[in-house]
Specification:
alpha+beta; 4-stranded antiparallel β-sheet; 3-stranded antiparallel β-sheet; 9 strands
């Protein structure tokens, strides 16, 4: 009888053990809802419980688990492009930024996941407009390295382990922001080519006519 009871107990435990343990992948976390605390009106930060990555972690059997509680903490790469008005014309800017959720604050990330990538793209473009708006195209084209340093200081941060205002607000880590291309617009390029061509024609005419200037 003892053996049969132990066997039945083991089978029963194996059937419900997923309610007592949480195991995640190395790149995933699980956000559960403690229904008991919710029933007694606890604060939201205590109701939602985060586990992972890895495991197994011990959990209460009354914690509710849903599909949208599974959150990947893999780094996602997003691209941005924009035309930016300089003092004497337009430049085409392009680059990328990389984000990953803050595993210590998944609830904040979860509530803003739909907007975080677009929000950061808009902020990057707005920042670039403010940086280059009063410069000439020639000055801007020579300042890619300086602009990249400014972007990293603004959105990635300069102190290791200290999150920026954007990161704290959205529950993410901004891994990198890079401006990879900065070119004059097609109209500006045609104008510049025309000016250069006119200069060569004028110089050739001067040489053929024997003038000093």
């Amino acid at each position: 009888g003892g053996t049969i009871g132990a066997g039945l107990g083991f089978v029963g435990f194996m059937a419900i053990k997923h309610r007592f343990f949480v195991t995640n992948t190395t790149t995933g976390i699980l956000l559960t809802t403690d229904t008991l605390k919710a029933f007694f009106g606890a604060d939201a930060e205590k109701v939602f419980v985060s586990y992972g990555p890895g495991g197994p972690f011990v959990a209460f059997p009354w914690e509710s688990r849903t599909a949208d509680g599974n959150i990947s903490i893999k780094t996602a790469t997003n691209e941005f492009t924009s035309q930016i008005q300089c003092r004497d014309g337009l430049v085409n800017a392009g680059g990328s930024y990389r984000l990953r959720p803050d595993h210590r604050d998944p609830r904040r990330f979860q509530t803003g996941v739909a907007a975080v990538a677009d929000d950061l793209k808009d902020l990057i473009i707005s920042f670039l407009i403010g940086e280059v708006g009063d410069r000439s195209i020639a000055e801007v084209l020579r300042s890619v390295e300086v602009l990249n340093e400014a972007l990293k200081a603004k959105f990635v941060g300069t102190v290791p382990g200290v999150q920026t205002e954007f990161e704290l607000e959205h529950g993410v880590y901004v891994v990198d922001v890079t401006l990879s291309s900065l070119l004059p617009s097609a109209e500006v390029q045609r104008t510049m080519s025309g000016i250069t061509e006119a200069g060569f024609i004028a110089e050739g005419t001067r040489i053929m006519l024997g003038f000093s200037s």
